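Cross-posted from the bioinformatics board.
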Amino acid sequence: MPELPEVETTVRVLRPYIVGETIIDVWNDYPPTVRLDIDELRYRTHQQSITAVHRRAKYLIFDLSNGEHLIVHLRMSGHLSVLDGDEPRHKHVHTAFLLASGKELRFRDMRKFGTVDIVQELEPFFVKIGPEPLSSNFTPEVLKDSLKGTARIIKTALLDQTKVAGIGNIYADEALFYAKISPEKPANQLSKEELILLHEAIQKVLILGIAREGASLDIYAKPDGTRGEMQNEVAVFRRTGQPCRSCGSTIERKRLHGRSTHFCPTCQRS
DNA sequence: ACCGGAGCCTGTTAGC
DNA sequence: TGCTAACAGGCTCCGG
C-alpha cells in the first residue's frame, strides 16, 4: 500500500537511475493500466528524455523533454524499477518503458490497480487533490479548512485525497494515535487543540515514514528490491492485540467504512 | 453537494 | 490436508 512516504522513497531511489534516460518505446500486456491509447502513449513518449522525477500526493511524475508529464500511480501493489532490458521481466510486470541505454523502467503490479497517464499540464490533473501535508503551506488552519465541511468520521476524512494528499490506511491510523484522537470522531468536531495535534502528528508520521524509507508490511519494497523499515516503528497499525506502547492497553481493530482501523482505546478516547 | 458502497485484482490467510 | 471464502486496500464510478 504505497502511501506518501513509500512513493517519495520510490522517487528518491529511482531518480539517479532514470533522470537523463531517453524513452524509445513502451511495452504493455495489460491495457487497462494505461489510461490512454497505448499507441498514443508510445508516440508521446518516443525519444523523450526524462528531465526530472518528483511526487504529488501518491503520484510519481516524470517530466519529459517535450514538456509533457508521465504520471504513474502505484495503487496497491505497484513497484517501479530500472533494470537491464535483457533481464527477464518478472511475471507481474505489465508495463515497461524501453530506454535508449538498453535499460527498462519496469512497472510491476500484481493487483493490476496501478495506472499510467500522460498530461501536458499538471494542474488540471491534480485539481481535486488536497494540500501536500509536508509543504510549508500546510498549517493547522489549512487542515481545519479542509475538514470543516464534512461530518464524516476523521479516519475516513483523512483517507479522502481531496482533504489532505498522500495519507493512506497506515499513516491515518498512526497519525490519529499520536494526536490521541478517536478514529470515529466526526471530522468537523475536532477542537482547535486537536487540529493542532493532528496536524503535527500527520507531519511526524510522514516524516518518520520517509526517514525509514517506507513501511514494507506486505509487498512494498524500494525500487532496488530492499525493504523499508517503517513497519518496525508503527505504533498501532496491524498491532491488534498487542500492548499500546504508551499506556499498555490492548490495541484494537475495527472496520470503519470498509477499512481496518487500529487504535488504542485508552489513548484515543475523545 | 455530499456520502456510502460496489467494483477492480490476485496472493495470502482463515476456516471448515 | 485440501478446498473455498474472506481479506487486503487506493481510487473511480454510480446511485441515493
